[in-house]
Amino acid sequence: MLTCREVTTLASDFLDGDLSLFRRMRVRFHLARCSGCAEFLAGLRVADQRADRLRQSMVRPEPELLDRLKSSVSAGLSEEKAWSVGPRSDLEASNEPLIEGVDEPSDERVRRIFEDIRQKEGFVPNLFRAYAHQPDVLEYNWQREKSLMYGGVLGEAFKSAIVVVVSADNGCGYCVHHHQVALQSAGFSQDEFTALLSNPEGSRFTGREKALLALVRQANRDPHEPADALLARVRAEGATDAEIIEAMSVMELYSSWNKFLDVMRIPLETDVS
Questions:
Q1: What's the burial of 269, exposed, middle or buried (CB within 10 Å: 0-12/13-18/19+)?
Q2: What are phi and psi of 97, to 5 degrees?
Q3: Cβ of 236: how many Cβ atoms within 10 Å?
Q4: Using CA atoms in the order 29, 35, 36, 42, what is the torsion angle rounded to 10 degrees?
Q5: Alpha-carbon dihedral of residues 15, 29, 87, 74, nearest 10 degrees?
Q6: CA 14 to CA 27: how far, in whole Å?
Q7: Closest CA to 210 of 232, 240, 188, 233
Q8: 96 class by beta-carbon count within 10 Å (0-12 exposed, 13-18 middle, 19+ buried)
Q9: Contact, 158 vs 186, CB < 8 A?
Q10: Measured on CA atoms in the order 29, 30, 35, 37, is the torsion positive or negative?
Q11: Contact assessment for residue 225 and residue 136, using Cβ atoms and an 8 Å cutoff
Q12: How far apart are CA 149 and CA 27, in angstroms?
């Protein structure tokens, strides 16, 4: 998760549309949780709008003057924000996790599960380190991850695509980042990943897989919306009931993890590229 300092540094580029899609998502995730930064961006947006109106009203625009005006207003807003939130430790703590993960488990059962996770994933994600405070919950969630993502009837890359689309819709940067890495390892280029986020229907997958993506995306975003037409499409594309259940189960698992990760503010691992 980005810090408040990083968000205010990126503010102008964010408003100008000069950030990458993934970085824009990370800024949006932060703004959804930090009222101070949201107010700062709102103030900066007003300053931009005023500068634009001034530019339109000038007979002979002077870009240097407008740039100085924008910089001055931005600096003033930064000072005001620093003054207003500086004494409030609760806002400063908005980037801190609400629960610390277990680094060196004393419980033998947890150590065995961690070793199994390392063998499959190469490291123990902070998600599972947080769950390790309750070994039954850790084991339950790891077994679901292992059976769904490393077994089953659907391809691993396609299931990572489900995770990315669902997690992006839910605003969970942690899961998006992890499965972006998985897709890149499977041969996805950055352009293909960006296309998947912006238009899953235009991705490299088969017609059957695109139909499954549409189904799980609607189920995640609006589970009360009738799915009859989407199910008919999925079956017309040749998907089996086993594939439908597996795709829906991946959506269900990661939708719940999205909520847990964001509510508990579980941080992304610093050593995950």
A1: middle
A2: -65, 150
A3: 11
A4: 80
A5: 0
A6: 8
A7: 233
A8: exposed
A9: no
A10: negative
A11: no
A12: 29
Which residues, including other chains, have CB under 8 Å from residue 118's CB and lie 6 or more apart? Answer: 124
Helix spans in the chain (H): 4-16, 21-31, 35-57, 63-85, 89-92, 108-121, 126-131, 135-149, 156-170, 173-185, 190-198, 207-221, 228-236, 241-263
Q: Please give the single-letter amino acid code of residue 84.
A: S
Q: What is the full per-residue pLDDT of the chain (273 aa) written as tens digits?
A: 566 777 777 888 888 877 766 667 667 766 765 767 777 778 778 777 766 666 666 555 556 655 665 666 565 555 444 433 333 333 333 467 899 999 999 999 999 999 999 999 999 999 999 999 999 999 999 999 999 999 999 999 999 999 999 999 999 999 999 999 999 999 999 999 988 988 888 778 999 999 999 999 999 999 999 999 999 999 999 999 999 999 999 999 999 999 999 999 999 997 654
Specify the pTM: 0.69
Neighbours of 38 (CB within 10 A): 14
Q: Give the position of tokens 């599960």.
A: 113
Nearest to 109 by CA among 126, 133, 144: 133
Q: Residue 106 and residue 185: Cα distance in Å, rounded?
A: 33
Two tokens, residue 70: 């924008």
Largest CA distance in the chain: 76
